[in-house]
Amino acid sequence: MKKLKYLAVATAMALVVSAMSARAGVLYTTLGPSGEFDATNGYFVDGSNFFNQVIGSPFTVSSNATLGIAELGLNNFSGNNNPVNLFIESDAGGQPGSILGSFTQVGTIPPFNSETLTSFTPNASLTLSTGTTYWLVAQETDPGTEQAWDYAFNGATNGIAFNQAGSPTGPWITFTGTDVAFRINSAVPEPSSFMLLVAGLVAAGAIAFARRRRLS
Predict the structure, then answer these.
(1) Average pLDDT over residues 202-213
(2) With 0-12 CB in 10 A as exposed, 13-18 as middle and 19+ as buried, what is 115?
(3) Sign (positive/negative) of CA torsion 24, 189, 36, 55?
(4) Span 38-56, pLDDT tens digits
(5) What is the pTM of this model?
(6) Would you say domain 26-187 falls under CATH 1.10.150?
(7) How many Cβ atoms are within 10 Å of 216's Cβ, its own excluded?
(8) What is the pLDDT of residues 73-82, one digit of tens each?
């Protein structure tokens, strides 16, 4: 009896792990297999004491999912080290359009040549749709900060948008060049949702165990 009960609970927990895996993962990446990127080259994302440059890169996702953490290959190149503003924007004819969502930077951007990723958490829930083009746009509002958004792994190319007006909504200039280093992840379930999922699956396992016990 104890063995059967253990198997029922174990089955329920396996279903939990499977559900978690299905709801969290990488939606898009320009990084290498272990998160590699070119930390020696990139584009400036900086304030008005420098170029006042804003950079955007397009991406699409392979499945409908809730936006999770974004991870960028950013380095502090010179000046201060003020946090970067990060946005998800719509596509408007091959360039960034309207702002759909924003992120908050976690921690401090590492110094130049560092291969450490900087994480950004979304400020609100946003569902990304399969096959839709979005833009990830980085802006630095501190006049005295100059960051570098480093190049993607193995020099992958893409359409890049930029402006030197310090604006996350343009006007934009676009070109095809080396892409920037980033990874977009899907969200994981909220703790309350996860606990409800656990409770439901364990209950289902208990019912299955009871039925099997009556049949034995």
Answers:
(1) 47
(2) middle
(3) positive
(4) 999 999 999 999 999 999 9
(5) 0.80
(6) no
(7) 7
(8) 999 999 999 9
